[in-house]
């Protein structure tokens, strides 16, 4: 009979990451009072381990150290061990990551931090190998040394931890300096553009050599810079940089050519060999960026990529209840009988496999050509594998191929004497066959946690794609997800958002015994999503909920002394620092997006104090925006919008009328970073009319749908021609 598996307290948690560690020999605790009390009562140090369920090196450290009984015994004897899912508790993660980055010059996950019983950090790092190596101290040694230090030099450790905390408080503070005002837009925009231009990769796009990340915040900034400088060489370069980057990413191995969607990042300069996990926040932001690229260029290539991303999310990251899951892992079992997971196993191919799956002769092509020949040529497949060994240190991809579209379609067609239309059909046939073959492989782990913030980013992706591509199905999917948030991640009694919920048995949705309250990023990304969804659907209920959440965000997070929003509420005594993020990363920093949200909220409500708050955020970050704007491209973009004042594009007409729809199509087909759209349908009792009394004075002209461009609630002359309206929409 099999021996029952050991379980620890994490078995009672909902987070997939915590549940992955529920059978470790380590006596893990979740972050909470029970663990804190034990540390104080027993006068023990705390070992804090932070990661997430699709993190490759988190899996490695678990296999090597946390599953080891010997190392587990050392941990249990000397420490109170706490596991945190960084996606569930970004507040805890940010406090201790601030410490690790400040003391080691780097950071990442898994994050390993040692704390005093009163939660002050004094030592930390990221991944540790289990045993000592030539260049690195092993985890076992570190544990024993720290335990010895606590025994021999407790007072010195306590004193050191207090000094560290005070230094962190001082260096992490962001507040307005004296009478500082928002920085000048042109100067900040130009500096940011020049800094990005210098780091731009002319050959492959993107903004570094390797590793290379999608960085949607950079692309969003470049689109706005182009829109405001369309007639200048700098504006043309900004657009070229953004479009070339998006094209190279879509051709590269970072894009899943068989299963759709985008992987996390590329390990090389060419966007070829990715780190294979797929994150919801990347799909949401990239759907919006590719929609914008199509809106500006009219190139169907970008529209196809949007459809590709949204197909992946609809099929693989969607819960039946309407929400979006968080991520898919990079690692999986190569076959159903494999004992060990490998990175990328689900996605890569040998040349032999491809030849076996695609043996058919191709009619009309060079004699002897098979489907496999055409496909392998187009996607850079090599007999011995196409992955550089330098990019595969553990030889997990030896002999394998990561598909990369390395040939323009017309060259592949010419190589095999095919018509371009015929090539497209052949490649589609190949992709369908490979998709069916891949479906037989063991799938990577799916993190079925659903987060308010990331769902917000994905709702924006669907809503913006629906508006730009005139695809009502995408708008409906965005509305379904917003309804999911209102049902499962919003507490109507308190009026507050919740951070997370979880996929339960039989597709039910479950919640923690004590739900985690929403953080600033949850409010900011959900509010942005609701504004995007209103503009795509014209359902005023979304607008009403967005404004309610904006009031709640002000109440919970605003700093009345130093200005801008804190990332967390001030009510949790276990959080030693109350931080304001100061760098856009994989997602924009919440204060960056909050500026634009506040400007939109003011336009939809008439509350001008929100416009004032937007200016105060920019004032608080003014020094950073002027010195190193490249760290905050989304806030630089918002600075430009703030100084130009948003245009309120008001269309008076029946939303279902053909003339109104033509006007709406015109507005949605033009990229203008400083516009908000609203439809005045004549319902004087409606939410918008109650918020904005000036709408009652706007009328249809000659019984036709009529547009007005308003600024600070003062409106232009009426326009009834879509062509004339288009000319008025430029920034």
UniProtKB/TrEMBL annotation:
Question: Domain Spermatogenesis-associated protein 20-like TRX: where?
Answer: 7-168
Extent of the signal sequence: none
Coiled coil segments of this chain: none
The record's annotation in Pfam families points to:
Thioredox_DsbH
GO BP: carbohydrate metabolic process
What SUPFAM superfamilies does the annotation carry? Six-hairpin glycosidases, Thioredoxin-like
Q: Which domain of life is it from?
A: Eukaryota
Q: What is this protein called?
A: SPT20 protein
The organism's taxonomy opens as:
Eukaryota, Metazoa, Chordata, Craniata, Vertebrata
């Amino acid at each position: 009979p099999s021996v029952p598996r050991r379980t620890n307290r994490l078995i009672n948690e909902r987070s997939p990451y915590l549940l992955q560690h529920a059978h470790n020999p380590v006596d893990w605790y979740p972050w909470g009072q029970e663990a804190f009390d034990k540390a104080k009562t027993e006068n023990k140090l705390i070992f804090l381990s932070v990661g997430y369920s699709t993190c490759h090196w988190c899996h490695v450290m678990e296999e090597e150290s946390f599953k080891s009984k010997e190392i587990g015994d050392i941990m249990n004897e000397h420490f109170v061990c706490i596991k945190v899912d960084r996606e569930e508790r970004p507040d805890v993660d940010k406090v201790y990551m601030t410490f690790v980055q400040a003391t080691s010059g780097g950071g990442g996950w898994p994050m390993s931090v040692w704390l005093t019983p009163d939660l002050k950090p004094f030592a930390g790092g990221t991944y540790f190998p289990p045993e000592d190596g030539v260049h690195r101290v092993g985890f076992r040694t570190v544990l024993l040394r720290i335990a010895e230090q606590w025994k021999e030099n407790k007072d010195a450790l306590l004193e050191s931890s207090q000094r560290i905390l005070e230094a962190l408080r001082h260096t992490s503070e962001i507040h307005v300096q004296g009478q500082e005002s928002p920085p000048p837009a042109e100067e900040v925009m130009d500096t940011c553009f020049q800094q990005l231009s210098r780091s731009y990769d002319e050959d492959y796009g993107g903004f570094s050599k390797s590793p290379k990340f999608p960085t949607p915040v950079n692309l969003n900034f470049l689109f706005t810079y182009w829109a405001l400088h369309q007639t200048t060489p700098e504006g043309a370069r900004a657009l070229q940089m953004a479009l070339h980057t998006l094209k190279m990413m879509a051709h590269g191995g970072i894009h899943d050519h068989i299963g759709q969607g985008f992987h996390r990042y590329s390990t090389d300069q060419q966007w070829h060999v990715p780190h294979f996990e797929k994150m919801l926040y990347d799909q949401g932001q990239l759907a919006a960026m590719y929609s914008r690229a199509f809106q500006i260029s009219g190139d169907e290539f970008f529209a196809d990529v949007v459809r590709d991303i949204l197909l992946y999310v609809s099929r693989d990251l969607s819960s039946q209840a309407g929400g979006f899951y968080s991520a898919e892992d990079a690692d999986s079992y190569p076959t159903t009988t494999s004992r060990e997971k490998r990175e990328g196993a689900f996605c890569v191919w040998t040349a032999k496999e491809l030849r076996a799956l695609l043996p058919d002769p191709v009619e009309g092509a060079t004699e002897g050509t098979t489907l496999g020949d055409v496909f392998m040529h187009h996607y850079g497949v090599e007999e011995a594998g196409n992955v550089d060994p330098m990019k595969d240190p553990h030889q997990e991809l030896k002999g394998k191929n990561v598909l990369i579209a390395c040939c323009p379609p017309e060259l592949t067609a010419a190589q095999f004497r095919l018509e371009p239309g015929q090539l497209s059909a052949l490649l589609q046939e190949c992709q369908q066959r490979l998709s069916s073959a891949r479906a037989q492989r063991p799938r990577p782990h799916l993190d079925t946690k659903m987060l308010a913030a990331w769902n917000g980013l994905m709702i924006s992706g669907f809503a913006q794609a629906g508006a730009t591509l005139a695809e009502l199905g995408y708008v409906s999917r965005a509305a379904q997800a917003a309804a999911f948030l209102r049902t499962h991640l919003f507490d109507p009694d308190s009026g507050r958002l919740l951070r997370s919920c979880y996929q339960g048995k039989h597709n039910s949705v479950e919640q923690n015994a004590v739900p985690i309250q929403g953080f600033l990023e949850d409010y900011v990304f959900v509010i942005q999503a609701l504004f995007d969804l209103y503009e795509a659907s014209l359902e005023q209920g979304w607008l009403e909920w967005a404004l309610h959440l904006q009031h709640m965000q002000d109440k919970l997070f605003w700093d009345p002394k130093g200005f801008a929003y804190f990332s967390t509420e001030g009510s949790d005594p276990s959080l030693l620092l109350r931080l304001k993020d100061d760098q856009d990363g994989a997602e924009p920093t919440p204060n960056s997006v909050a500026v634009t949200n506040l400007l939109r909220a003011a336009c939809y409500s008439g509350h001008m104090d929100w416009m004032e708050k937007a200016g105060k955020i920019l004032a608080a970050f003014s020094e950073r925006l002027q010195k190193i704007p490249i760290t905050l491209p989304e806030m630089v973009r918002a600075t430009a919008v703030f100084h130009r004042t948003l245009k309120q594009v008001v269309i008076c007409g029946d939303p279902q009328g053909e003339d109104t729809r033509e006007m709406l199509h015109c507005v949605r087909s033009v990229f203008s970073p400083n516009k908000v759209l609203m439809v005045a349908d004549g319902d004087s009792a409606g939410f918008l009319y109650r918020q904005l009394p000036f709408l009652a004075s706007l009328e249809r002209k000659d019984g036709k749908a009529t547009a007005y461009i308003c600024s600070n609630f003062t409106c232009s002359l009426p326009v009834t021609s879509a062509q004339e309206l288009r000319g008025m929409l430029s920034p």
